[in-house]
Amino acid sequence: MAALHRVAHRGYSAVAPENTLPALAAGVQAGATFIEFDVRTTADGVPVVIHDRTVDRTTDGSGKVWELTLDEVSALDAGSWFSPAYAGVRIPRLTQVLDLLRGGRAELLLEIKPPATLEQVKNIIGQVADAGLRGRTVVQSFDPAIVALVAEAAPELRRGLLRDGFDAEQVAVARELGVSYCNPSTTAVLGAPATVAALVGAGVAVMPWTANDITLWPALVEAGVAGLISDRTGELTGWATALGAG
Ligand code: G3P
Ligand code: CA
Asked: Which of 24, 40, 43, 51 could be 11's S-S partner, Cβ–Cβ 3.0 to 4.6 Å?
């Protein structure tokens, strides 16, 4: 089997609270070749790493991320919801995540969540550049308009387009946006292997999310994916190693 990217989804989020420094560090230690995480910008313009539009599900606070200041976001407990063992873990700033990942070899799969302005996209990319991580980073989004903003801000940076299901004109859309990756759901990949083949033929790699069901991994690989985006980093590394794709 050819080498397969092992993408730690929101870090190794099966064992630590998603998108926190412990989860991202655990992803590296468990052998991820890509660390995936989500970036939003606070009311006072600071990029932070959190998935949801609000802080409600993953912290002890409430409110929309873009209506809270960095001080307000940083005061929240982002670990206790997952386990008391992580009590007091904070929502990290993007700069903290970049500092953590700079020392290793794993690539960064940085997702920008909407809403995001050109100024915010430029600020995020600027922090990646300042950390010396431009060459190791792919910036992706579900929102094609944000992918286009990334292309405008940094044409040389690798980009990815996230999809729920494949678009009817998926290859043309991917080409138009100049993406290196097109990452749909596992269901989309298994339901449309011809689209995967067409994308791969056009030079666009496919990495489905969220591949947590181990019984689906062989079929996804058979469909031609370049990697699997999963919460289960350790098992993914073990499985790929056992099959000679580690
Ligand atoms: O990178 C793939 C995956 O993260 C997309 O979905 O909702 O977990 O950001 P979501
Ligand atoms: Ca994500």
From this structure: 24
Among the bound ligands, the one closest to the CA of 206: 1
pLDDT digits (tens, 9 = 90+) for 190-217: 999 999 999 999 999 999 999 999 999 9
Which of the residues in the chain have pLDDT under 70? 1
Scan for tokens 């286009």, then name that residue.
148
pLDDT in tens, 15-25: 999 999 999 99
Residue 75's domain is classified under what CATH number? Answer: 3.20.20.190
Kindly report the protein residue whose alpha carbon is nearest to atom 3 of ligand 1.
Answer: 209
Give me the active site residues, please. Answer: 9, 51
To 10 degrees, the CA torsion angle through 89, 91, 93, 96?
A: 30
- Domain span holding position 208: 5-243
Rounded to the nearest angstrom, the distance between the alpha carbon of 209 and the centre of ligand 1 is 7
Domain count, the chain: 1
Dist. CA 44 → ligand 1 center (Å): 25
